[in-house]
Design brief:
This protein has 13 helices and 13 strands. The protein is α/β, with parallel strands linked by helices and about 375 residues long. Strands 3-2-1-4-5-6-7 form a 7-stranded parallel β-sheet, with helices on both faces. Helix 5 links the parallel strand 5 and strand 6. Helix 1 crosses helix 13, helix 4 runs parallel beside helix 5 and helix 8 runs parallel beside helix 9. The two termini are about 25 Å apart.
Length: about 375
């Protein structure tokens, strides 16, 4: 029996525990349960730690839409869409946009949405990816973006403003007891005691710039020998060489034992309260989820000025921003926070207030579901 609720099929590229994937979990968890029901199709499912159980616990149906070819995958999505009688098909990433667009058109889904969760056309994007993006943006009716930077880039590629909807990320606020629990969890990886921990969280991708973080930590540890550097992330298929490069740089700078790469951790946000500073080194982003998660956990953030971060962080008030590639600026801001506990607490508290005021999960879910409802029924 088909439900009276609006039936949404979300298509996502993979089900590992990354920033975009956590946003999808938040959408399902904080949905309007009286009006919407969700199914999630995963195109490239992984083994090990995934978001599948989180989605199931939140009430979504999860389907692994694997196939040996792109055309077969589209066909399987068409069959799934018809079986679910989906009224909305929403690609959750740029990778899955063409699949949602094609499957939605073939099966005549009333509302077809795409997403752009980073800065399209960045210096890291190959020409083929940009060409596919150009095509896929025309297969969907509306594109949901999580940053004004992404929206501006799409407009520059000819996507009209009327087809764009800007919905900022949402993050959960951790309970007050989070720090002690996180410190205990971090001890399992050999990081014990009260030494300051400077962290970088993000999968090992070229634009995440992990080597810059290692260089910065060389300067920080030179000034504060008790400091520890932690990188939490995993190498994705095709980027395994980044792991080797990180390990080489750590050895070259004599940082072995002081700077660690932890790859086997899922739900890194649960460790966030254990960190003294979160350092964000990406050279291109839209709205980095990890920065908001750190702020929500009262962890002071030092980041490069990319994407929409300058609309969130007021330099010196609720975090620190430096220009791209400014190693000295990053190190200086980190050392200032490690040297001044009162400043670090003040920055952390103001960061949490910013997130609580502007980046709640319920707000994010309501805004996305308003796009679904308006597309189907007109403004609500």
């Amino acid at each position: 029996m088909i439900s009276d609720r609006i039936r949404v099929l979300v298509i996502i590229g993979q089900n590992g525990v990354g920033g975009a994937e956590r946003q999808l979990v938040h959408l399902v968890k904080y949905r309007d349960r009286e009006r919407f029901e969700y199914a999630v199709a995963v195109l490239n499912p992984r083994d090990g730690d995934t978001i599948d159980d989180l989605l199931l616990d939140a009430g979504a149906t999860v389907v692994h839409a694997t196939s040996s070819s792109a055309l077969r995958r589209v066909y399987s999505l068409v069959r799934l869409t018809r079986r679910l009688q989906a009224q909305v098909i929403h690609s959750w990433s740029s990778y899955s946009n063409p699949y949602a667009g094609l499957a939605g058109r073939i099966s005549r889904v009333p509302v077809r949405l795409g997403s752009m969760r980073n800065e399209p056309g960045s210096m890291t994007a190959p020409r083929r990816a940009l060409s596919m993006g150009w095509v896929s943006w025309r297969l969907v009716d509306t594109i949901v973006v999580n940053s004004s930077v992404a929206a501006a880039r799409l407009r520059s590629f000819g996507v009209p403003e009327s087809r764009l909807r800007h919905v900022a990320n949402g993050v959960e606020l951790l309970p007050e007891s989070g720090r002690s629990v996180a410190r205990d969890a971090l001890a399992a990886y050999g990081i014990v005691g009260d030494d300051p921990v400077v962290a970088n969280v993000g999968n090992l991708r070229p634009w995440k710039n992990h080597l810059l973080f290692v260089d910065v930590m060389g300067m920080v540890i030179g000034a504060v020998p008790t400091a520890r550097g932690v990188m939490i992330g995993r190498a994705l298929p095709g980027d395994e060489s980044i792991r080797d490069g990180i390990q080489r740089r750590v050895g070259e700078l004599g940082l072995s034992g002081r700077v660690q790469l932890l790859e086997g951790i899922s739900h890194a946000s649960r460790l966030m309260p254990a960190f003294s500073v979160l350092v964000h080194t990406s050279i291109t982003e839209g709205m980095p989820n990890v920065v908001l998660e750190a702020m929500a956990a009262r962890v002071p953030v030092v980041a490069m000025r990319v994407g929409d971060l300058d609309t969130v962080i007021v330099n010196g008030e609720n975090g620190f921003l430096v220009e791209r590639g400014d190693v000295n600026g990053l190190a200086s801001a980190i050392l200032r926070l490690l040297d001044d506990a009162a400043l670090a607490r003040s920055i952390g508290e103001r960061g949490r207030q910013t997130v609580a005021r502007r980046f709640g999960c319920e707000r994010m879910a309501r805004e996305i579901e308003a796009v679904y409802a308006e597309s189907l029924e007109g403004p609500i």
